[in-house]
């Protein structure tokens, strides 16, 4: 019976030592968390497909209702990273008071990278 107690005690000490280092126990968890993150990128254009430099792209988290924004670069490009795979998002662009259609990203979609192009009808 004493040997069985020592064996359990030795396993417990080993488990505590491994947990205390953090690295070997937590690395797989960190890798899984990174794999579940998403990105969304794309371009903002007008109705003639010209890039809309300076358009503001909005990304709304439908769970917290927080909104992130990105100013499109000279090619009309934008990118949002580190998005949760368990959250729904809404995405749209605005330029000089005009707004694109709202696009959605569903938490049920298993993709990790989205390319969504937004078109703003400037009326010209």
TrEMBL record:
Keywords recorded for this protein, A-Z: Carboxypeptidase, Hydrolase, Protease, Signal
The UniProt record lists the keyword GTP-binding: no
Leader peptide range in chain numbering: 1-26
Name listed for the protein in its UniProt record: Carboxypeptidase regulatory-like domain-containing protein
Keyword Protease: yes
GO molecular function, one term: carboxypeptidase activity
Domain of life: Bacteria
